[in-house]
Amino acid sequence: MRMSDLVAQYILEILEQQNGSAEIQRNELAGNLGCVPSQINYVITSRFTPEQGYIVESRRGGGGYIRISRVNMDRGTAIMHIINSVGNNLDKATAEAMLNNMLGRGLIEVLSAKIIASALSDRTLTHIEQDRRDVVRADLFKNMLLALNS
Q1: DSSP string of 30-70?
Q2: Nearest Cα to 44, choosing from 19, 62, 75, 23?
């Protein structure tokens, strides 16, 4: 398992134990996990975003902390939030990460995620010009999520 996966898993366990809200000290967490503090930053900025249902607050200084809170939304609101966060372009890696997060949060079923991933793959979009694929992928993703949400 990669270090970023271990960090994310550790933070998720803390969130679970503390009812969806955790206050951590970056340096202390890095020391406990045997990684550098910048890896903690990377994981938090890439896996604990508003699009993924989290609010992150930080305070710098000697007593500084990072507070991560899970936002509780109903399924429909969460999917609409994801749709609104996509924008005009969506690369394959980001689409896959969003699908995995949606699966992890129970917002979509495995079969739906597989179908969406297949439709958004570079193989499916092979006849679309390279510079247009991310635009088409974003439109497809948003429309498929809208269909799931109706």
Answers
A1: HHHHTS-HHHHHHHHHHHS-GGGTEEEEEE-STT-EEEEEE
A2: 23
Q: What is the pTM of this model?
A: 0.65
Q: How many CA atoms does the CB half-sphere of 25 hold within 13 Å?
A: 8
Chain centroid to CA 125: 23
State both tokens at 107.
Answer: 């917002």
Q: Please, what sign has the CA dihedral across residues 110, 111, 113, 114?
A: positive
Q: What's the CA gap between 111 and 122, in Å, rounded?
A: 19
The predicted-structure confidence for 128-150, as pLDDT tens digits, reads as follows: 998 999 999 999 999 999 999 88
Q: Which two tokens stand for residue 40?
A: 């903690």
Total count of residues recorded for the chain: 150
Give every CB contact of residue 76 below 8 A, 6+ residues apart in sequence: 149
